[in-house]
Structure formats: C-alpha cells, structure tokens
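Pilot study result, target chain (309 residues):
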Amino acid sequence: MIHRSVLTPVTGRGPRRAGPTARTSILPIRCLAAALATALAGAAFAQTAAPVDTAVEQLEPFWQEIPEAAFKFELVPIPGSADGVIKPFWMSTTELRWEAFDVYVYQLDEVEDATEGPDAVTRPSKPYLPPDRGFGHEEFAAISLSYKHAAEFCRWLSVKTGRHYRLPTEAEWEHAARGGAKTAYFFGDDPKALAEYAWFEPNAEGAPHPVGRLKPNPWGLYDMLGNVAEWCTGPDGKPITKGGSYRDGADLLKWSARVKQTPAWNASDPQVPKSPWWLSDGPFVGFRIICDPSPAGRAAQPLPGDSAK
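Predicted structure:
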C-alpha cells in the first residue's frame, strides 16, 4: 500500500528545481516495489495454503423416506479425509432398522415391481424363522443378514429413490467412526467411557438394543461401536464387519478390529446349500448405509450395473 506522504510533493530547504529531485522519484518507486512484492507474496501464500474442502459444505443432512412405509431415516454429511483419499459422503445416523428393511424383504412394494424390467432387483428368500430372533423389531437394527443381503438392499433403495446407496468401505467406516479423533476411541483413550456410547458385553445384557439411545460420536453417528457389528467392504473387495457388537469386549470395538464371517454364523441353517441371504447364527450382525454425492453435491443416480440383473 502506497503511503500518503509519497503522493505529496517533497519540498527542500533550497529553491525548488524545475525537474523532480532524486527523493521524489526514488521514494515512490521503492514504495511501489514494496507494495508489489507484498501482493505477490500474498498470491504465492494463497497458492501454497492447504485447499479448503468445500464439497462437504454443499451437503446437508436429509431424511430418506422408504417407499410404501411410513418410515424415514436420517443421513448426515461426512467430510472427506485431509489427504483427499476419502471423499465426502452421507451416512445413516443409525444402523438400518427393521422398519426400512421389511419393505424390501417382504416385498411390500411388489405391486410396483410386478413386471420385470431394467430396474428389477434381486429379492431374498423369506426367512423361515423370525429374523429378529425375538430381541425386538420396531426401532431395532435389522440383524441376522449376510453381506450380500445388505448390499442388495442398497441396490433396491438406489433404484427406488434415484440416489446411489451402498455399504461403506472399511476405510470410509473407520473415518466416519473416528469422527475426526486421533485417540483410541472417538471420546478418548480410556475404555471406561464406552458404556456411554456403546452397547457391548459389559452393559448390553446379551442382547441388541434400540438404535440411537446412547451418545453419538462427534459427527452425529450413533452406535458406531457396539450394538451390532456392521458390514463393510474390505480393501480386497471382500466382506468384513467392523465396530463390534453387544457380545464383544472393548478390544473388538477398536478401530483396528475387524471380523470376517465364519461358518459358525450359519451353522444351524438346515438348507443345502445354506442361505446366501440369512445368517441363522448371526443375530449380532447388521449394517448402515452411505449415499454418494455427485460432484455438484447432489445425490447421484444409480450407476450402470448397480441394479441386480
């Protein structure tokens, strides 16, 4: 910025000369050079400063209604990672509840899907036992279901809503569960506080609980730890569960803990081959879903090939 004094004629003690003095010519030039250098330095800083992730600012929480059901669930925006590897997305604030899952499982929308077409989705076999195992239905997380089952629900909901729903990757799940924290748990390093945020072996009394009853993590996500383990897609593209369940101790609720499905999860299924949809001995497994935004910050249409053939 040029100081006002350099714009004022400089007078000396001697008589005024006809031409400009050395002081009147050099001083403004030096000030202009300094101002230019300051401006260039500011521009350089703006280019080297860490970019601001504005994508998440375009995402707002929203409620997803379930077709043919008087039910809706909330999704909140999750910011991308600092390194840009994980992009912003929406995630359901709770594990998916039976009120949403029943419409898909029991084909309560079958009139609309009566004819086959490009948007036809794969339906599961109806369960031969109550899938909630008597723990509870309304307000409870859907359980006893396979990764395939959870993924097909996402496909169905994508077709129904025009948004692109899917299961989170393991990296996305961990990023969301941390809620920006760098500690062992999103509330700190001391597992003694777990009971305020998670239903797990010490406080669950051997059963899952209605979702959203305990404290959420910093990004508004409930039951990310405990209650029911949640299906994710591992780095190798294979199913994995994260977060631990009501049966587990604090060690299985850590970020690094991951549990693969074993034959024991479907041991009592009398079918041959065993059901690819239901886990007869897996009443501790459920899922939550994420929604992908488009570059414009609006929910995207289902991608080609995402609808089951």
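One observation from the pilot: The two ends are 67 Å apart (CA to CA). A full batch analysis is planned for the follow-on phase.
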